[in-house]
Request: fold
Amino acid sequence: MFGFSFVKILFTIAVMVIVWQVFKRLHKRKYSIKDRMGKVKRKDQVSDDQSQVEDMVKCPDCGAYVPEGSNHTCT
Reply:
């Protein structure tokens, strides 16, 4: 009943290799997603550094919000 046969040993090795490969691919996928997210974050940080925030003021004539100090003409 508990005898070791060549087929049982091969089956056990095959299952171990399949499980190992699945975990290896999941691990690789996890870190590749983290790398891509890191690249996206770095791009966002660069664009955030380059962009400028301006204060908006309400136009007394039309009520639209425009950047402070801009040449806004109501139409």
About this structure: The longest strand covers residues 56-58. The chain has a mean pLDDT of 81.
